[in-house]
Specification:
By secondary structure, this protein is an alpha/beta fold.
Length: 276
């Protein structure tokens, strides 16, 4: 029943048609069928003109790329950030950048910001680079193929999932692949970012728990965060981690469809600091 409701909603939304065209609508439906195991994945990339993402983007057929695009373009995943009308954004960190659609959103929204993008999965990362290259001023973006966590180590990427929810595991399992995981302080040191971070976006499929449990060294450098929570790591535990790390953030729902409070907008109530 849920599948048919989702298909109906996609087909019924006239706003999809001018942006994606009939082929795009068909690809969206294919993506949903893939996530329900009714079609096999097929990763052929196609180019689409999407003005809200700054022009041409590449999306793979029969993958969850189309659902990611739908969340950003039509469901307003990051509209809460745009609504702040920030004019002085210089540094953006995108953790869990997937194929780069969120990065393209930041490239257009913040035209002078340097952007640090992190994505652990190789095929997603290749398409991320392609999408970043087609966006405005791509030299402003630095991309790292790695996972993010509370400590630097070699871990394992669970490949038995959809393209938008690969997860980092500490122990290998059937079908997993080794992946480098960096702590956020080490990642920032590699990029020589020592000042405040205007925006941190975090959608890391469960790794947010260890990330924020080890947030004390960097949390007070961040001005705004938009964070997606997964599984049993809920808003109560997240807010407790922020306080334990010495943060003073106002935490609010990022969308009005946020029934389980899984997408949160966090505003630092203090002036962000530079690295110690």
């Amino acid at each position: 029943m849920h599948l048919f409701k989702t298909l109906y909603e996609t087909a019924a939304r006239a706003r999809y048609l001018p942006v994606l065209g009939m082929s795009g609508i068909a690809y969206c439906i294919e993506s949903m069928l893939v996530t329900h195991g009714l079609l096999k994945r097929r990763a052929e990339a196609a180019a689409f003109e999407i003005d809200s993402l700054g022009g041409t983007v590449f999306l793979r057929r029969r993958t969850t790329d189309w659902l990611v695009a739908g969340e950003i373009i039509f469901k307003g995943e990051y509209d809460a950030i745009a609504a702040l009308n920030l004019s002085d954004v210089r540094h953006v960190v995108d953790l869990g950048a997937n194929i780069g659609l969120s990065v393209r959103y930041w490239q257009k929204l913040f035209p002078v910001a340097e952007i640090l993008a992190v994505e652990p999965e190789a095929e997603n990362f290749r398409l991320l680079l392609q999408n970043v290259a087609g966006g405005p001023d791509p030299l402003r973006v630095r991309a790292f193929q790695c996972g993010i966590g509370g400590s630097t180590r070699t871990a394992h990427l669970d490949m038995n999932r959809n393209d938008w929810d690969y997860r980092v595991l500490d122990h290998p399992q059937a079908g997993s692949r080794p992946v480098r995981v960096l702590s956020l302080p080490e990642l920032l040191d590699e990029t020589r970012w020592h000042g405040p971070i205007d925006l941190l976006k975090c959608d890391v499929e469960g790794a947010e728990e260890e990330l924020f449990d080890a947030a004390a060294p960097w949390l007070n450098r961040v001005r705004y965060m938009i964070v997606e929570l997964h599984g049993r790591y809920d808003a109560t535990r997240f807010e407790a981690a922020l306080k334990k790390a010495g943060g003073d953030f106002k935490v609010s729902d990022a969308t009005d469809r946020n029934k389980r409070r899984e997408l949160l907008l966090c505003t630092n109530q203090r002036t962000p600091q530079a690295a110690a």
